[in-house]
């Protein structure tokens, strides 16, 4: 989200980065529409989000422990994802505003009913 207020100029660099990120999302959404899911190469290097659950904030997101994230170091690091655009738990993947995730076990997987 960009706020233009208080006489500040638009940061063109940040806007360009956001446009590029949204264009990647649009291309991924088109691929989902046209082939019902990501290509194996899309998920090959995607971070694994284990112990995940749906979260709520002004936009839908996922909470979980991430491994192999390209910018967040460490194994099993707790994170909150960017906005979720597509969640396919039965297929084991999610597409957030920022990237693809392979889904590990959800938090309630070990619960006894």
Instruction: Please indicate the percent range of residues in DSSP E strands (runs of 2 or more).
Output: 25-35%
Q: Report the total helices.
A: 2
The strand order across the widest sheet is: 3-2-1-6-5-4
Domain unit count: 1
What string gives the helices and strands in order? Answer: HHEEEEEE
Outline type: globular
The percent range for helix content is 25-40%
Mean pLDDT rating? 85
Assembly status:
single chain
End-to-end separation in angstroms reads: 41 Å
User: Which structural category do the helix and sheet elements fall into?
Assistant: alpha+beta
Question: Would you report the number of β strands?
Answer: 6
Low-confidence stretches: none
Major sheet description: 6 strands, mixed
* Computed CA radius of gyration, to the nearest angstrom: 16 Å
Topology:
Layout lengths: L11 H24 L4 H5 L3 E8 L5 E7 L9 E4 L3 E5 L4 E4 L3 E4 L10
Parallel strand pairs: 1-6
Antiparallel strand pairs: 1-2, 2-3, 4-5, 5-6
Can you walk through the features of this model?
The chain is of the alpha+beta class. It has one domain (12-107). 26% of the residues lie in helices and 28% in strands. The protein has 2 helices and 6 strands. A 6-stranded mixed sheet has the order 3-2-1-6-5-4, with helices on one face. β1 and β2 (61-67) form a beta hairpin. The longest helix is centred in the N-terminal third of the chain and has 24 residues, at 12-35. The model has no long low-confidence stretch (mean pLDDT 85).
